[in-house]
Fold this sequence. Notes:
This protein has 13 helices and 7 strands. It is an alpha+beta fold. The strands form 3 sheets. The chain has a 3-stranded antiparallel sheet. A two-stranded parallel sheet has the order 1-2. It comes from sediment metagenome. GO terms for molecular function: formyl-CoA transferase activity.
Amino acid sequence: MDGLGFGYQALKQEKPDLIVISMPAFGNSGPYRDCIGYGLMINSLIGIDDLTGFPGRTPPGLPIAYADHVAAWAATVGILSGLRHRRKTGRGCFIEIPQMEAMCSTTAIALLDFLVNRRVGRRMGNRLPPYARAAAPHGVYPCKGEDRWCAIAVFTEDEWVHFVKAIGCPDWTKDPRFATILSRSQHMDELDQLVSVWTRGRTPDEVMDILQKSGVAAGAVREIPDLVENDGQLRARGFYVERQHPEMGTTLLEDIPFKLSDTPGGVRRTAPLLGEHNDFVFREILGMPEEEINQYIVDEVI
Length: 302
């Protein structure tokens, strides 16, 4: 933007209370300033991908450009801070939010642990790291069906008692290896195998319902079709809305994820077709003469 004459220093001469936000991959200074970056690449560069997966295996990494979302959250806070500054001083400001720096927050305790203790975080699968609160069992367990799973976490001795009752008090739960949270944590592999025997005989939702009713944290691992076809919560909230598309017909869409009390808003229409609003933009908004528009059409510009 600076090269085009639209940098912040130039713009604030015209409007001193202007707030400008810049969201480069790496920042406007430093050795990476001119490098092109994408969300998936940022995931790897800040080390979060290295923490995913199981010990001794290749890290799978995050399947989405998580950095894009995290940077947007940081930008929201930055803009609100800029608005507060303007309200107090009457002046605008320039806000810089590099994706790489925003994403460092997602490494959470792993980064702090290295800064303080020089301890390197390792891939642990579904286990909790040593500095976290102990939980056993803790993991994602196989269930009835093809590649179906349910997450289970037992943090306290009371929860363990409820868990044992919920799964029918099998004999193995009386084993001294599983008597306390500490001993269970020391025998997680054996514990996971025994818990899996119980979960394999039930669907993820059955496991979740049984354990939740007993006060044990559990959540079915959803597949995308589950979110659309089987999730009663999202449907009850009106998260999916039907709209008519001129070419696709009735289409199911995601609604906006926030609701305002006085102006709830929502998805009113489907995405426009290519060139659908050309006339409105060129004639009504830009006020272009008919001859110029027609010439652009002939030249296949529009």
